[in-house]
């Protein structure tokens, strides 16, 4: 499979495996589709391709590192956290938490684990976090880890992202 397992004693980040596909699909909701600007709900085959691409990137230690988020005491998939190497010491951070696990600090904890990994294993010195302006939860998370608003840029779907950046390592 490949990939690193990370933990802070509360959460475990593990690379996705093929067996996670149905549970990942079950976690999708309208809020997730909206914030990721998905053109349609995912199908199982979409998730299976995504997981295969994540595994391939881990095997090759490519630019994309994605983890499933679980609680230490549970096998349930609660979401995912994602890093993409942008070059020049920058990584893009994104995260998703499934509906029943939201607003419990999961994204913040998972982001901190992933960003510590980015610093230690990817040589990252800066993190970029992008979100649609209405995504108050993501803005709050970005600010809570120390990221600052730096401007706007077009999204892939023709909307506008607010862009936050922060120097690494985390304090």
Note the beta-strand portion. Answer: 25-35%
State the end-to-end distance. Answer: 32 Å
- Overall geometry comes to globular
Give the C-alpha Rg: 15 Å
In round numbers, the mean pLDDT is: 91
Task: Spell out the helices and strands N to C.
Answer: EEHHHEEEHEHEE
Sheet with most strands: strand arrangement: 1-2-3-4-5-6-8-7
Structural class: alpha+beta
Helix content range: 25-40%
CATH-defined superfamily: Gcn5-related N-acetyltransferase (GNAT)
Notes on the protein architecture:
The protein is of the alpha+beta class and 171 residues long. The protein has a single domain, classed as Aminopeptidase (3-Layer(aba) Sandwich), CATH 3.40.630. The chain contains 5 helices and 8 strands, in the order ββαααβββαβαββ. The protein has helices spanning 21-27, 30-35, 44-60, 106-122, 136-144; strands at residues 6-7, 11-14, 64-71, 77-87, 90-97, 126-131, 148-154, 160-167. Strands 1-2-3-4-5-6-8-7 form an 8-stranded mixed sheet, sandwiched between helices. Strand 3 and strand 4 (77-87) form a beta hairpin. The longest helix has 17 residues, at 44-60.
């Amino acid at each position: 499979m490949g990939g690193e397992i990370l933990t802070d004693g509360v959460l475990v980040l593990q690379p996705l495996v093929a067996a996670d596909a149905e549970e990942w699909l079950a976690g999708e909701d309208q809020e997730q589709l909206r914030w990721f600007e998905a053109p349609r709900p995912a199908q199982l085959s979409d998730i299976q391709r995504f997981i295969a691409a994540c595994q391939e990137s881990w095997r090759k230690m490519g630019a994309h590192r994605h983890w499933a988020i679980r609680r230490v005491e549970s096998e349930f998939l609660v979401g995912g956290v994602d890093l993409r190497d942008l070059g020049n010491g920058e990584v893009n951070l994104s995260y998703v938490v499934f509906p029943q696990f939201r607003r419990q600090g999961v994204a913040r904890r998972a982001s901190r684990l992933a960003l510590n990994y980015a610093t230690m294993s990817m040589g990252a010195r800066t993190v970029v976090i992008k979100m649609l302006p209405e995504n108050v939860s993501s803005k709050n998370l970005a600010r809570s880890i120390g990221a600052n608003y730096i401007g706007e840029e077009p999204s892939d779907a023709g909307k506008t992202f607010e862009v936050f950046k922060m120097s690494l390592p985390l304090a």
